[in-house]
Write a structure and sequence with these properties.
Helix 3 packs across helix 4. The chain is mainly α. Helix content is about 75%, strand content about 0%. The longest helix has about 35 residues. The chain starts with 5 loop residues before the first helix and ends with a helix. The protein is rod-shaped. It has a domain of about 80 residues. The protein has five helices and no strands.
């Protein structure tokens, strides 16, 4: 019967040290060519840039969708029990705030007429 010792088997399958060092050196050279950030401060700045970019995108998207829903609710003249009615009221309040004092009475009359109809 053959008696194998674990140390001998491990030594047979382990790579040579010089091969590992050469592979490590080649890997690090290729990694440096890709231009990845190795400084911790630069990495934080890079992450913050991505966070700000994506958060700006999502906030802009949310604003665009909200304004679109407000305009839809106003143009469709949704009833008071509709889920978009609060957006319609917000749009009317914005119109009232932005109206000049000379145009305000006409705007109030138009809004009141829409509620009556």
């Amino acid at each position: 019967m053959i008696n194998f010792k674990p140390k001998k088997i491990k030594h047979l399958f382990s790579p040579h040290q010089n091969v590992l060092l050469k592979a490590r050196k080649e890997f690090l050279e290729e990694y440096d060519k890709l231009g990845f950030v190795t400084n911790q401060r630069e990495a934080r700045i890079l992450v913050m840039q991505h966070v700000l970019k994506y958060s700006f995108f999502f906030v802009s998207l949310l604003v665009i969708l909200s304004v679109g829903a407000m305009v839809y609710a106003d143009r469709a003249d949704v009833p008071y029990n509709h889920p978009l009615y609060s957006l319609k009221k917000a749009n009317e309040n914005i119109q009232v705030q932005l109206a000049s004092p000379a145009d305000a009475p006409d705007l109030y009359n138009r809004l009141a007429q829409r509620r009556i109809d």
